[in-house]
C-alpha cells in the first residue's frame, strides 16, 4: 500500500524518517513524508526511497496576516495526494509549534471525512 507520514520539523527529522522507512521495510509500496521545508532535505538525505513533500510551515516562517491562506494552501496540497493513500501516520517529529499543529489538525479532519485510516503518534 501507500503510506503518508505527516511529521518532521527542523528539530525532529529522525522520527518521520524511521516511521516512513519502517513502513517500506514491512511491505508498503510507497512511503511519503509531508514535512516542513527545514526538515525535507535532511529526511531526503537519509534515504532516496522516500518521497518527501516539503509543504508544512512553522510559526516563525509565516506572518500573522498570512496564516489563514498558508494553512489553506497546505491543506489543499495534502488533499491532492490524500486519495492515493491507504493510511496516514500523523505526529512523528512534529514538535509543538501551534501553527503547525493547527495545520495538521485540518489534515486529520479531512482524512477522517475521507475515511482514511489514521495512526496518531504523540499529537
Helical percent range? 40-55%
Number of domains: 1
The CATH class is identified as Alpha Beta
CA(first)-CA(last) distance: 24 Å
Q: Can you tell me the residue ranges where pLDDT is under 50 for at least 5 consecutive residues?
A: none
Q: Which structural class do you get from the secondary structure elements?
A: alpha/beta
GO molecular function: ATP binding; ATP-dependent NAD(P)H-hydrate dehydratase activity
Pfam families: Carb_kinase
Domain YjeF C-terminal: 1-123
Organism: Aegilops tauschii subsp. strangulata
Report on this model:
This is YjeF C-terminal domain-containing protein. Keywords: ATP-binding, Lyase, NAD, NADP, Nucleotide-binding. With 123 residues, the chain is an alpha/beta fold. The chain has a single domain, classed as 3-Layer(aba) Sandwich (UDP-N-acetylmuramoyl-L-alanine:D-glutamate ligase), CATH 3.40.1190. Helices cover 44% and strands 20% of the residues. It contains four helices and five strands; from the N terminus they run βαβαβαβαβ. The chain has helices at 14-25, 37-46, 67-82, 98-113, and strands at 2-6, 30-36, 51-56, 87-90, 118-120. A five-stranded parallel sheet has the order 3-2-1-4-5, with helices on both faces. It starts with a strand and ends with a strand. The relative contact order is 0.22. The model has no long low-confidence stretch (mean pLDDT 96).
Describe the SSE topology.
Layout (H helix, E strand, L loop, with lengths): L1 E5 L7 H12 L4 E7 H10 L4 E6 L10 H16 L4 E4 L7 H16 L4 E3 L3
Parallel strand pairs: 1-2, 1-4, 2-3, 4-5
Helix pairs in contact: 3-4
Pfam families: Carb_kinase (PF01256)
Protein name: YjeF C-terminal domain-containing protein
Organism: Aegilops tauschii subsp. strangulata
Amino acid at each position: 500500500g501507500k503510506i503518508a507520514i505527516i511529521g518532521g520539523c527542523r528539530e525532529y527529522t529522525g522520527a518521520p524518517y524511521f516511521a516512513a522507512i519502517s513502513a517500506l521495510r514491512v511491505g508498503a509500496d510507497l512511503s511519503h513524508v509531508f514535512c516542513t521545508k527545514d526538515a525535507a532535505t535532511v529526511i531526503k538525505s537519509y534515504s532516496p526511497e522516500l518521497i518527501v513533500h516539503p509543504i508544512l510551515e512553522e510559526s516563525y516562517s509565516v506572518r500573522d496576516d498570512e496564516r489563514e491562506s498558508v494553512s489553506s494552501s497546505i491543506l489543499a496540497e495534502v488533499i491532492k495526494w490524500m486519495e492515493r493513500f491507504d493510511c496516514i501516520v500523523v505526529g512523528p517529529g512534529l514538535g509543538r509549534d501551534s501553527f503547525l499543529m493547527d495545520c495538521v489538525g485540518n489534515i486529520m479532519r479531512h482524512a477522517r471525512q475521507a475515511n482514511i485510516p489514521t495512526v496518531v503518534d504523540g499529537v
